[in-house]
Amino acid sequence: MITPAAGPATVPKGVRLGYGVGSFCTATVNAVPGLLLLFYMTNFLAVPAWLAGVVVTAPKVWDLIINPLVGRWSDRTTSRWGPRRPWLLAGACTLPVAFFLVFAGPPLTGVPAALYVGLCFLATATAYALFEVPYKAMPGEMTHDYHERTSLLQWRMVFIGAATAISGVLAPAIAHGEGTDGTLNSYRLMALTIAIVLFAAMLGSFFGTARAPMTGAPEGDRGTWREQFAAIKGNSAFVWLTVLACVQMLAVSMMLAAAPYFATYTLGSSAATQTLFAVLVGPILLTMPLWVRVAKRLDKRGAMVVAALLFGAGTTAAMATPLFGPIWAHVTILVVGIGYAGVQLMQFSMLADVIAVDAAKTGRRRAGVLTGLWTAIESGFSSFGALIFGVILSISGFVESQPDKPVEQPDSAVTAVLIGQTTVPALIIFASVLITLKYRLTPPVAPEPAASE
């Protein structure tokens, strides 16, 4: 039973841990398909690169419909478990199955294989929304305190880092196999392993948040869609934060889609995907306390600018990988990882602030609608990273293949891989710095004293 809290709440440590473990879902469902799905289709199912990009992108468009719906439903839910937790349980019971089916690999190739993967990925996106939208809405309702929300969310980021490391390193290791480029059976084993991890983590979050404080508005917003969207449209902090997240995650998703190609064709070994991912997510585990302090010193907007600049600097430096080799690539991606850790923490903390301020101003529970829209727009827009990269590969003359019929890629395709991994994401992330300056929600809006970490 979620207990109400009358004033600013310091979230209990047990609840922080219970909430944080749910981020295994967030990290895994974003990382594994983002890292492997495009490569799986082009190199194992003989799907043309442009069509594989469409398959990765198309189901995300569905998020624009399902995410706000789930958010609205959870806002209006009344149960002994609170408004959000029933939806966490629904997602836990459906997402692992749908995720496994994406990589189940029936005996199909080309267009039929693309249709199968697309349908299963659509089901995965639906099940993911059932869990993720209510889950992301919860921090803005757990505490009134501006800095306590950042402290709470650093725990989530630690779990995201651990989950991303596990999924980003373990999944490629299982899928590609030691010393091999992988088989369809190895991809099936990978999918089953990750599905089990998902199920355990999502159930853990459902039970772990049973005693979470509820400081948000007591009633769900019963207004019409038009009234709710009109109010959201006038929320400038929400609008600019959504734009910022879209741009930043477009760069991230493009780098994820390009990573196995970068490892295979630039560094010369698909196994390098694992080590590159390790140095990318390692800083999430180690730098959270640092980013919390930076946010308190420079405010969240200033911390976001610093984080994006680090991200962009590392990505730019990675362009020189053909000159300096694999060690240089790993060092530059480590810098990217430090910036990425800050970008992620500030995004989630800013969203929690927007939710809390909206509830305080309106007296209505709209965290689900706000989170649903933010997640849908951000996810849908960022999914174009894989599509853009797929188009770049197709234009460059990249040749799709199957494991038993390897091909040698033309030099133009190898160059396109480097551009898609470094140049284009760098330009995108630097643009996000300018967008950050438009975000105006700062501590005076929420002037409560900071809670202890």
Automatic annotation (TrEMBL):
The answer to whether the entry has keyword Cell inner membrane is: no
* Regions that span the bilayer: 21-41, 47-66, 87-105, 111-131, 152-175, 187-207, 237-259, 271-291, 303-321, 327-346, 367-393, 413-437
Q: Which InterPro entries match?
A: MFS_2, MFS_trans_sf
**Coiled-coil regions, chain positions:** none
Superkingdom is Bacteria
Question: Which UniProt keywords are given for this protein, alphabetically ordered?
Answer: Membrane, Transmembrane, Transmembrane helix
SUPFAM superfamilies from the UniProt entry: MFS general substrate transporter
Is Cytoplasm found in the keyword set?
A: no
What name goes with this protein? MFS transporter
